Please model this.
Amino acid sequence: MATFSDAVRALPDDALVALLRARPDLASPSPSTLRSLAARASSRTSLDRALAQLDTPTVQALEAVLALEDVLPAVRPGDVAAAVGATTPDDVAAVAALLAEARTRALVWTPDVADTALRAAPGLGDVLGPYPAGLGPVTGDPAPADLTDLPVGAREVLDALAWGPPVGTLPPPGTAAREAVDALLAAGHLVPGQGDTVVLPRTTGLALRGGRTHRGPALAAPVPTGRRAVPPAAADAEAASAALEAVRLVDTLVHAWEETPPPVLRAGGLSVRELRRAAQVLGVDERTAASVVELAAVAGLVDADSRSAPVRRAASWVEDDVDAPPSYVPTTHVDDWEAVGTAERWAMLAAAWAGSRRMPWLAGTRDEKGATRAALSADLGRGWIPRLRAQVLTALASLGGVAATVDDVSADLAWRSPRAVPPDAVVAGLVAEAALLGATGAGALAATGRTLLDLLTTEDDDPEKSLAEALRAVLPEAVEELLLQGDLTGIVPGRPSRELASLVERAADVESRGAATTVRFTTASITRALDAGDTADELLAELARRSPVPVPQPLEYLVHDTARRHASLRVGAVASYVRSADPAVLAGLVEDPRLAELGLVRLAPTVVAAAVPAAVLQSALRQRGLLAALEGPDGRPIAHLRRPPRLERGGSRELRSPYASPGAPASDGARRALVERLRVADGGGRRSPFPSTAGGEAGRIPAVDVVERTPIGERVVTDARPGTPGPGDALALLRDAVRDGGHVWLELVDGHGRPVRRRVRPLRVEAGRLRALDTQRGAELTVAVHRIARVEPDDD
Amino acid sequence: MGDGPLIVQSDKSLLLEVEHPLADACRRAIAPFAELERAPEHVHTYRLTNLGLWNARAAGHDAEQVVNTLIEYSRYPVPHALLIDVAETMDRYGRLTLHAHPTHGLVLESSDRAVLEEVLKSRRTAGLMGDRIDDLTVVVHPSERGHLKQVLVKLGWPAEDLAGYVDGEKHPIALSHEATPIQGGEVKHWEMRPYQAQAVDSFWYGGSGVVVLPCGAGKTIVGAGAMAKSGTTTLILVTNTVSARQWKDELIRRTTLTEDEIGEYSGTRKEIKPVTIATYQVLTTKRKGVYSHLELLDARDWGLIVYDEVHLLPAPIFRMTADLQARRRLGLTATLVREDGREDEVFSLIGPKRYDAPWKDIEAQGYIAPADCVEVRLTLPESDRMTYAVAEPEDKYRLAATATGKNRVVERIVEAHPDDQVLVIGQYLDQLEELSAHLDAPLITGATTVRERQRLFDAFRSGEVSRLVVSKVANFSIDLPEASVAIQVSGSFGSRQEEAQRLGRVMRPKQDGRTAHFYAVVSRDTVDQDFAAHRQRFLAEQGYAYRIVDAEDLDSVQ
Model:
């Protein structure tokens, strides 16, 4: 009789190709022989993987094969169909098809090519557990058990064990139940198990089940009952409004972050406070805000600004520790975003979401260590999310036009892959995201979602185009009109067009969104429009053009009143001014072409503002023959007018000895330090305990300040290598190395007080400690910074 | 675009396009469950509220009807979540019922044990209920009937009150359709207007509740109609003595009641008759820390209690009223807007809104006078503007509202209406005194005696006096039938309710069908203008849009 291995080797090429296609893990890494391919195909790992992809009826069929192969001389597809309870010809054919598919995957095989007798792949029994389909072990005679003549109470015992698990506990001695069990044990209908248990043998179990392994075939996914039907039009309409809202939320977020970019947490991600702020700006709860933030990020519209940090650090590395934290800012993708319409914007989001590995619903929850997971942090990414997303959408598609709940989706997924049931929380998160994005409407998969699903399963040249078209097909017609009313409200009876939306966002406060938009005009909203550059007349003209009814008079008054007050106080910047009690003196100044470069603006009959400093203005006026007095900030004339600006100088002035020479040390402490250094250089003082290395790098170390000022000192340092350069320099060198990933030579004092010299790659400097990688030894070391005697860069 | 007149927003507001051919049908269909929020000229806004939906349930509508109505009239697909919410909200009503148990008296019964447990566990219901009779029933202290209903509404499980009403002491009352005008003259035949009859029927069918009608639409007659239907002794609670007298006159005129059957219970007179009219003030008067006139509520076995101007009902009366749950209660008001936001207490203690009609509709039927609302904007002279600019914030409104330039404006408006009865209404006494002297018109303030007020009002009615300056005492329930022009010079900050009442002053229908005029004189660029904007919002939402006129252009207004 042939073995599994033989059967695999006997497979025709096409079948082998099909096998490798269905179970790609078998080909990676490529097996050396067909024998090893067969061995791998029956390994636990590979079988686990293969089973994870199978749906419930296939697993049922495999269980049936396993359960029957030790009982029947040969298991044929018909036997399997009967065992799982398939009765109609269609069901029988369906079971046969499932078995054929299982054969393709080498999960069942036929020992004899000419025969259809099936066997389970070796190892499958181990993977599916000791009791396939809840049936006990085969004991003794595999012939069907005879259950006609049973003692009193025995039937109940058997019924309790019939549908598994087949293991029961022995009742206490002396009871009626124990007597029945004893009788069954004697008749061989039960066998003793481990300890105080009894086991129902497979033959008895099958007999009790009427020869079946399962109650019925689970050929179709479970259909939820009692769910409200959602007509496709309703689903599409709700999906469309959700899609519009998603686009609006992302747009609002991007603009809010443009104004005030939130900082990136040290460990990456967005802080809880910033997330809360985003939620407030968007007017949604934090969970939704997290989804919106993640959506904007996967679409590449916002990103952590990695530029700012190193740039700033390079400029100010001497002061160190003043690095401004990097922040999340809009990217150049926003330019594309702003150039296109709503449908295309949504397509950008949807296409990005399709491949997203993010789980935004985890933001704000705590991980195993009790730390809060931050939105946009690496914690929220998982590689298997895109696959599960496709499965969730598939499940939603198969549920059809009903308001599906998360439980329905989970049940469908459980039927689809009973051996790999996804966690409910993740399913719930994906369903919520689908609703937020507008892939579903009222709980049912909408046309938009179906397009998304198609893109996930088939190749498409331009997925964004298909998505945009899908959305456009379900979006309601854009409306261009705004009904203005006497109570200072306005109503857009439908989806506003882009221009209209921008008008109402600019000039009014939105009170209610949905199928229609209602807005209210207030002083604040009109001020916003005026700030944005509209004038009162332009605004009224635009409103009149949009409104099918005349602009109500109170609204006209509101706009005019606001405009009047808006411009009544004006703020600007000038560098200097000319004023005169006599307007006649100032007449003609502004128009004089000779004074054009002064940037004169007449603010009032007696005041002219200029764009040049007061002194320049004064001399220009003098040249023109106008005598002007210069006045101070308090309005009083300043006596001394022209004085060249003096050099800005920080620090306090000290009284200096008249004998002091410039450049010499100014305090005793500084002098002592110089002496000490000189002594070391001279060889008379404490000598550096470190063996000298090749010179040359020392010059690269920024010198101590005193040395820098005196050429003599510098020479001394270069030649003799001071033992302890300024600690700030050492730190700066280390930070440079951390940033560039470079190596340095470190001289430090070890635990026994011995000087050591090591070539390391610094990883991090913080809290007074250096973490570095000793590449030679392949070990990481942490050193207190105060034990570091010297740092030299090493560019090799 | 679809073709329905209604747009259903997911925030539970309903937008009804007025010009749509189906608008009227739609309005009738949604009125039972949606509250009219705003009724400006083109699109009316209704809102679905829990109270409104429960109201509808109480009136016998079910969720399916509501959902079908929304779907039928909606232009766009109705948001699914909203439909579910409607069904769930309506389902909450009636899980708990209050009814009279043959042996245990008043009980709260639940069809759902979990709901009852939730309610019993709540701290708010502590002390309101007695022993458990069984899993689903619990005894309620009869005195806490009102309080419990109030708490249950707050908990989101409103109880259906099936305990019924005491019949009250019988006292035959009928409407007399031959009204005798007070001033003498010929007897005229009259009938209840259709909307008044509808209001009475809706109230009676519902048992207790509130009827909302605009000022001048004849709320007193609705009260009289309810009394006739009830045919029992009646307690009427009104805001002040003048209003009490008017109720009395009107009842004598419109019903078979005679003067001897109607008592007045006020600060000056304490009569208890089969029909007794009491003021809120006397009920809330405390002597030595106790309400000394509470016995009035139990003085007779009242079969009906009428609350006039229910939106002004003071909080202590709410508490007293809690004990009156076994009697039929009718609330009358022009607006359910309470500046203190206690609309839900009105719902639970007096009853749900039973009838509501937009002002414009009643105006269109010719029952209230059409009104022309004008805001006159007065630019303050430079000196006043400086004073205003440097004034302390708390003085600013007073300064702006009492700007002297207003006197001249009022004078010009009065000149423009030589043949009309003109009321000048204001807030600040010195301003009113000044105006009174300026216009040579009598002044009525809180300090004016009731007798003097009555005399002046009578003179005004008869046309003897054609200009009257009044302080805010005139805000409520003073019937000035022929006032056709009202000029408001100052108001109490931004009270929308006050504005509604003041407009109501001029909206009684005129014999010659003249248009009423309502002027508000406002100082430009001051808080006066801001407050005016707030006050006007209510009227604009009722469909009365203001025209704005600059004081300088006033001559062009006629």
